[in-house]
Structures are given as C-alpha cells and as structure tokens.
C-alpha cells in the first residue's frame, strides 16, 4: 500500500453554489492548476507551492491564494465541499483519508 498521498486536479464547482459549472481551480500567484491531496493539502502543479487546505484563501471564483490578501479564508465546510466534489473520481477511501487529517489528536 502506497504511503504517498494521491492528488487530483481540483476541478469543482464553487463551494457556495455547487450547481455552478465545475472548473479547474488556479493558483492566484502563478496561474498554475491546483491539485487536492488525500493528505488534506492543496498544491500547485506549476510552482509546487503546497499548504494544508485550510491555509488557502479564495481570491476570486476558481482561484486560491496561499498568501492572505483581502480574501475569504477557507473554512472546514468550504474545504469539505471541494473534496466531496472530487470523490466521484478519487473514491470514498480517498475522502476518508482526506477527512482523517482534520481529526483532533
């Protein structure tokens, strides 16, 4: 069994409007495609920036930033919405691994 987290392109609707069109989310700083991992992190495939999912900020629709500009900080429900939309591709075991990173010790 692989210990490396599995990453998937972050192609999802807006968390506040799951009926909106699914699109590839982009890194605000460099325009690279964002990926979401089973280790509850989000990374950029262009510049390799990677941080825990709750450390990212929504700067505009379908864009996230790892630096806190005047933007909406993602909370657990937002992150869970994005991860849940990936489950069809990633599978339920991936989602369980993702969510397990939010359990308190």
Extract low-pLDDT stretches: none
Order of helices and strands: EEEEEEEEEEHH
Distance between the amino and carboxyl termini = 24 Å
Oligomeric grouping of the chains:
single chain
Kindly name the structural category.
alpha+beta
Shape: globular
* Sheet having the most strands: 4 strands, antiparallel
The total count of helices amounts to 2
The helix content, as a percent range, equals: 10-25%
Mean pLDDT: 90
Instruction: Please state how the strands of the largest beta sheet are arranged side by side.
Output: 1-5-6-7
C-alpha Rg (nearest Å): 13 Å
Strand content: 25-35%
Number of domains: 1
What's the total number of strands? 10
Task: Give an overview in words.
With 105 residues, this protein is of the alpha+beta class. It has one domain. It is 23% helix and 28% strand. It has helices at residues 76-90, 92-100; strands at 7-9, 11-12, 23-24, 26-27, 34-37, 41-44, 50-52, 57-60, 63-65, 72-73. The strands form 3 sheets. Strands 1-5-6-7 form a 4-stranded antiparallel β-sheet, with helices on one face. The longest helix is centred in the last third of the chain and has 15 residues, at 76-90. It is globular, with a radius of gyration of 13 Å.
């Amino acid at each position: 069994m692989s210990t490396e987290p599995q990453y998937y392109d972050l192609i999802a609707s807006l968390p506040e409007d799951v009926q909106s069109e699914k699109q590839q989310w982009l890194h605000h700083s460099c325009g690279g495609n964002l990926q979401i991992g089973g280790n509850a992190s989000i990374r950029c495939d262009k510049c390799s920036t990677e941080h825990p999912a709750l450390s990212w900020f929504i700067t505009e629709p379908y864009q996230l930033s790892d630096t806190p500009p005047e933007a909406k900080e993602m909370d657990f429900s937002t992150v869970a919405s994005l991860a849940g939309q990936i489950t069809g591709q990633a599978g339920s075991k991936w989602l369980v691994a993702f969510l397990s990173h939010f359990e308190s010790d």
